[in-house]
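Dear U.,

For the methods section draft, I wanted the exact inputs and outputs in one place so we can describe them consistently. I've listed the two proteins in the order they'll appear in the manuscript figures. Please don't edit the token lines directly; just add comments below if something needs changing.

First protein:
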Amino acid sequence: MRLWLAPFLLSGEHLMRLPFLFLLLFLPPTGAGTLAAEAYESIRVPHTRDLQADAALARKRGVPLLIMFSLEDCPYCMVVREEFLDPMLRNRDYDSKVLMRILKMDGGYVTDFDGRRVDADTLAVRYGASVAPTVVLLDYGGEPLSERLLGITTPDFYGGYLDATIDESRQRLRERLAFRE
């Protein structure tokens, strides 16, 4: 006797495999796939403590430096990080576009672009980060390459604004580097 299921003809031999297939379909994922997913999810934009080192890495890659000014328990900062920056970091296409870091405004001291230690609040004032989150894109000396993104008012459009700001910053960085040559 043969049983038709979906478009497949199942014989007695195939019917014996059904319990195994059923288990595969309905058991929660485990093993290497889960580990890979967990490793993927653990890729997050790092916090910065040394802007000079970050600028050197950005220069080596030939990309602008993106800094998100953040506060510890800021829900809007978490949205920008989890919905936009972290997924961008996981997308290898952005490796050639931007180097991303998070700077906690309530995080103490950071090494500035010139190697001196500076309070994070001083940097926030310098870059006009009056609200959190604020995203700035900088050249290797810490000079802004575009308008900063203050807060997040429209999440539906934020990714587009962020991409446009990155593209603008990349273009301005290329122009600055060509002018210096």
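Second protein (the one for the lower panel):
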Amino acid sequence: MYRFSAILLITAMLACVSCNKRNYSNDDIYGYESRKPKTENTQPVKKSEPEKKKGYVSSGIDEAWSHLDIKLTRNDNRALYDELKSWLGTPYKYAAMEKGVGTDCSGLTMQVYLTVFKKKIDRNSSRQYTQNCTKVSRDDLQEGDLVFFNNGNGGGINHVGIYLKEGYFVHASSSRGVMVNNLAQRYYDNHFYCGGRVTR
């Protein structure tokens, strides 16, 4: 009787253990559910483009003039700005006119006019005015006009540059090479002679 009761007790205990045993599925590892990676959208996120100003065309040349507050529009002569940009920083060299190597003021204007406008003008600043231009007042200057100066040594023209807009012009400074200045600056304001529009 005692042995029979012991057998029943052991049988009951085994049955309880069997009831509590978990039936693991294929997705289970040691009783923990495997973490399957979630499917993610791998399409690249489009970056929003900055809003463009009305009437403003973006190009590499625009940034070159941005620090001068010169805003280029569709009406501006892009070829002129591109060519002048390529001359900026060229050192001053009397009687020379080679981009990146050296040029004087009239050499710069002569080369730019030949490249951009396919127009050959005189090699001398004074003769560029007398032989190639009609006089233009300071208030009527337009993009591409020549601006003439007298530095006080004598009464005639002895310096020339190319007008851009808003008072800015590019020229070959004898001390700093090809650069941009403004007619409102004291020196150029005091020594301005006249503007000249090249007959094309």
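Candidate sentences for the figure legend, describing the second protein: The longest strand covers residues 192-198. The mean pLDDT is 79.

Thanks,
Y.
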